[in-house]
Amino acid sequence: MPISALILSGGESSRFGGTPKALLPVDERSSIRRIAEMCLGEGFEPVVVVAGPHRAPIARELLGLPVELVDSPRWYEGRTASIQAGVEALPPARDLLMWPVDHPFVGERTIGALLAAHATDLLGAWFLPTFRGRGGHPILWRSFVRGPVLELRADAPLRSLLPEFGPQVRRVPVDDPGVADPVDTPEAYRTGLETWRQAGVG
Predict the structure, then answer these.
(1) Distance CA 163, CA 98 (A)
(2) Which of 22, 93, 122, 163 is the Cys-Cys partner for 32 at CB 3.0 to 4.6 Å?
(3) Is the dihedral of CA 64, 54, 52, 128 positive or negative?
(4) pLDDT digit string (tens) for 17-57?
């Protein structure tokens, strides 16, 4: 059975002065298009993109790609509200990859490492990439993580579920700084882009 992909782009990008992080360039492509094309290339199906106040420009960036755009009407309540909007739009019996757009510099090898861990570790439920001991995104879940995610408060951080899954949380070491450093500010974007180019992680 295919694994679904959920791409989060539901925030207002206030620290960027309202410029959507989804549109930040990563060389030849925007962040959102690069992530969507990587998910499609890895065979995730369906690929769902959650959008909030920047729905129109995000939709334009995704033209021609077989992805589904889902609105997050409660985006202002917190990231978890957008995650829940996307999860509800996905087939309930499928495992899923959750990828926030503020981690645009993740390489293809990291996705491969997560998929390999998922395929070989049947007792794991939550696959978390780590770079030098620091956890980040994207993350890969078994389908039964869906229920606890939907039960969270909209303003509760996703990491608050980690104790519930305990030893089923698998940390997957990768040589990819893009997993650990979110692009929250223009400075973080410039630093991340330079690091990504120097690391050559793909």
Answers:
(1) 19
(2) 22
(3) positive
(4) 778 899 999 988 999 999 999 999 999 999 999 998 889 99
The string of DSSP codes covering 60-126 is HHTTTS--EEEE-TTGGG-HHHHHHHHHHTS-TTS-EEEEETT-TT--HHHHHHHHHHHHH-TT--E
CA 152 – CA 87 distance, rounded (Å): 12
- For residue 32, the domain's CATH number is 3.90.550.10
Q: Which residue has the tokens 């129109």?
A: 56
Other Cβ atoms within 10 Å of 123 Cβ, number: 8
Instruction: From 180, 172, 173, 179, select the one nearest 121 (Cα to Cα).
Output: 172
- DSSP state, 10? -
* Rg of the chain taking only CA atoms, in angstroms: 16
% residues pLDDT > 70 (the chain): 99
* Number of domains making up the chain: 1
The boundaries of the domain holding residue 89 are 4-199
Please state, in angstroms and rounded to a whole number, the distance separating the CA atoms of residues 97 and 77: 22
Of the candidates 92, 98, 99, 97, the one whose C-alpha atom is nearest the C-alpha of residue 147 is 92
- This prediction has a pTM of 0.93
* 94-130 pLDDT per residue, tens: 999 999 999 999 999 999 999 999 999 999 999 999 9
